[in-house]
Fold each of these.
Amino acid sequence: MNTPTQRSGFCNNCIHFLHNYNLFPSAPASTNRNELFVQQLSTVIYILLSICVLTLPCVYILYCVDKEPLYLQTIGSVRLNQYYQLQSEFPTSLRCKCSKSSIAYKSFVEMEPRFHEICTSYFVKEDWIEILAMNSNANLVDNDFRKTAPQTFQALQMFCAWSKTVVVHQIEQMNANEYSTAEISSPADFRIDIAVKLDRLRLSTKANFQLSLDMIRKTTHINGLFSALKTNYALNNKSVTITPQSYGGCDCSLSPHCTQQASIYAHPYLTQPVNILGFYHGCTIIEGLLRSDLRCLYNHRCLDLLLSGLAFPTKGVHVKFPTPLTWIRSPNNVSVETLVDALMVESWYSTISYANYFEQCNPTCSYEKMENRWKYETIGIIFIVSLIIGSILPVLKLIISIITNLILFCIRRAPNQVAPVMTNIHT
């Protein structure tokens, strides 16, 4: 059992051994303190230099020398499951080059827009518009919704058709483009890249559509085009003058965005209107429609009120009475302008097939075999250390020994210096 005294004695012995350790003793052994100091200092210098000589080459091999692969393994055409396995085994060194530099988007991407249900409903069919046109007779006041309803739903039909044309054209244009791919992308990077490109395509399509519509609206207002329905200007037949219409104190000659609640009148001369939920009357049919929403078409009561003001043919014409829309996906109080800005599309469904992309790429893969690198580095380090110990360290020890002997020779040849003795003089 070790006691504190024994441990202290062992430490003292170690310190004494290191303090007196001498690799360059003289023969015979010297007892001169100066000579011993030089020999021990030479020993420390030799040990430090030996450590540096042994350490620096090893550090250089491990961290500074470029690690070339032991060999480069190249594989011909690989299958998708084989590619996944190689990617898991060699995530950093695997390189796969495609057999073609570009691949058509249509070979691996499918885009399917889901349009708003109004665009497939009875309310944008020609039969419904014809029924409304039959009720827009001249006896109605100018602000009666029944008078402008045919053009309102015709404009809604036009927006649906225009949006579908633009969307289909953009999808066809995307399918005609090609995806550049020198090296095959990983599944995650590929899906992110394609998703970003599809988002940019949708945003640019919407922006171009909104720009075209905005130009039409501004051109119509700036040119002061007179509406045949007298929605923006009223024509006085007696004085042959044109007076701007005003809605809620907003003058149509100053702003094209003037609107008011759309209404129907039970009789041309009655002043109490019956409001049609969600629809607005504006300086132009388009401005009124864009301000409107489609709540009335979802509401049984509102739709019955609208139908009660219409006269339906009784003979010779097959009439289909419209039923309210079913609110399934989008809110029914969204403005038509919001729907038009979204190209009447409620949602986009995109199918991105990485398998089809991989098949079109048909890559040739290669990877670096690095698993035995440490083995060869260890052999190299052992060889260098052996070389240093067998050749460099003996030479280093010889040089230091020669320098030490020269210093000791100088010390021995130096004259002995006698220290003066001071005596006290007593008086």
Note: The chain has two domains: 21-68+371-408, 109-352.
Amino acid sequence: MRLLHTSDWHLGRAFHRVNMLGAQAAFIGHLVDTVREREVDAVVVSGDVYDRAVPPLAAVELYDDVLHRLADLGVPTVMISGNHDSARRLGVGAGLIGRAGIHLRTEAARCGEAVVLADDHGDVAFYGLPYLEPALVKDEFAVEKAGHEQVLAAAMERVRADLADRPAGTRSVVLAHAFVTGGAPSDSERDITVGGVAAVPAGVFDGVDYVALGHLHGSQVISERVRYSGSPLPYSFSEADHRKSMWLIDLAADGAVSAERLDCPVPRPLARIRGDLEELLADASLARHEESWVEATLTDAVRPDDPMARLTERFPHTLSLLFDPRRTETEPDASYAERLKGRDDHEIAEDFVTHVRGTGPDEDERTVLRAAFDAVRTDAFENEVHEREGAR
């Protein structure tokens, strides 16, 4: 069976001030063409279909368009909700849509329910594990600790139990939206650390033939059977080195996996340039970036006049301007913001305790701090969910 694995469309999202709807429509066209030309048997979409819970009308229309086009091709599609989606909204009409071959899995309670497709070698069972926020699904899975690893492990127990009741030789595919250990994040993914450590070991997914992951925006191979497709378009300059693509997966009769990486159309390359303004304007080696979307970091000791206007004369698609002035040995150490860069809230709180009393927190105090931050984040997440549903 031939699968096309994609995820993280983020329909409705902009890239800095650039409307990406046209690029997203071009990707959808490319996806449909690929399904037809490469004779794909099933499409799997591993979450973050939309960029926010209440997407703009144009994004909904594009989503509607791709569903119709895939249904017209007669190619089954299995799709899950991600942490950016409203699971309830995305799942509206799932039963009816399923009759057209578009199978939506947005409910935690349905993790163990397979979508069964068949080829010449027998059945392939697809299991959709939508984004599982630990604080909201811990009761559904009856876990003692509300953590990402615990709820995903419980969901996979249901998958394995269902698979065990199926005929011998049934192949299996799991769709999941999660941060798996070994994956490399970028700046454009929403934090999912509510409920403790976000990363889960790949071993959670043992026992299935292929795991189609979503959430991280870079295409990555965790193992031969566990892969991220990545987002089809860039959504932050941290993705400047990404190769935007989808996975074409061939699942053999014995469950063996072979994979081919298919490039996605990107409207412009991304470039990050750095240096004094005059150097950037004169450097001949930067000519290759003149039609790119550019993030420029200026290192001038004194901020120059009208830097954006001057940059866009040479690099008309400059979207982000940062300042990192050179410092001399006599100048003070890095700014407060620079000292905090890369540190999470818990680490900052521990540093504050150390600064105030001269010694850092002990293990019991660290536990209290961690629980307090988790409680605040959980409350914020639940409030966001309530606001989403209240807008219905």
Note: The chain has a mean pLDDT of 90.
Amino acid sequence: MELTMNFYATLACLVGVLLLGRFFISKSKFLQDYNIPEPVVGGIVVAIGIFILLKYFGIKFNFDGSLKDPLMLAFYASIGLSADFASFKKGGKILFGFLIIVTGLLFLQNVAGVLVAQAMGVNPLIGLLGGSITMSGGHGTGAAWASVFKDMPYNFNAALEVAVACATFGLIAGGLVGGPVAHYLVKKYNLAPSNHAKEAQENGQINSTAFETPERPKLITATSFVESLALIAIALLIGTIVADYSKGSLPVTIPTFVWCLLVGAILRNVLEATKLHKVFDREVSVIGNVSLSLFLAFALMTINILDLVSLALPMIVILTIQVTLMVLYAIFVTFRFCGKDYDAAVLASGHCGFGLGATPTAMVNMQTVTHHYGPSHMAFIVVPLVGAFFIDIINALVISGSLKIFF
């Protein structure tokens, strides 16, 4: 028996997935501690339920997929609109150095993933999905590239299942290894925060978890919401047009969502430079987060459980190597090239967070470290700037280049 869900029924299911995920997270300390997103929890639960209904009761669900791509593109457009290039000045030289270090890891993650996949005789795309796409990109980037790999010329039907599994594993692993890495570095090199940072925190001048928080945050109103929505709509329109015209004319494959991200970044900075409009970052972030949550809810609740099980062993090997690579890279590269001081140790813990999972995981790692050992003002400036949007732009280019090299 087939049940066809129209647009409205599908939308109701997506919201239901998010509410279900929220419910399970509220009941599980493990899910709370490791910041597992609501759509991931709810989507996996629903996917298992759909699998059971199909296998044992013969009930198949057909969902309306018309919302999927617009939601994904809206999320990446919001990332682009958050890319304030002037923010580079806040981090100084350490920001540029950290950005170079992070970029180096992206290449290594893809090389390691593809080589291991080839050595095990499985589709190299599994290695790429277990590389920077999900390790540094997370669920959103993983699901976006999975939709690309399902089509010609790749035709990898299990791409989404692999992406979801790798991203979820990375999210948990990133939270597990960040703290121990910082602890090892602090103890080994006898590190401590600078006296200036300690005094500033003791005097209440800085807060290691929230810097420069405005006393009266700007309210989200109907008028401002429409303005932010208009910017996203413009980024989607121009991005999709450019993507259509660029197909087959460039040496590398650049998916539509990358164009939407780049157009959003250009639009934001042109508006800032000309002083025509100031982007409401918090509002754009809200729109982007809602879009991502709904997109992931759809992507995850429709995964094929059987495909995931059949590819379990290669993924476990690849992901174990990625975690090992991340730990070694954080200790011997990130820490050393960021100054070999206390700030560098905190940066290393943050790098483990978004190098395997996501920026929120990086922030949690650093909060844990700084609450135990003391403040690190620089780390809380640099990591959000790199992890929030610059990493997505660079990662998209690195992935496109990796596809050109290996495929």
Note: DSSP finds 17 helices and two strands in the chain.
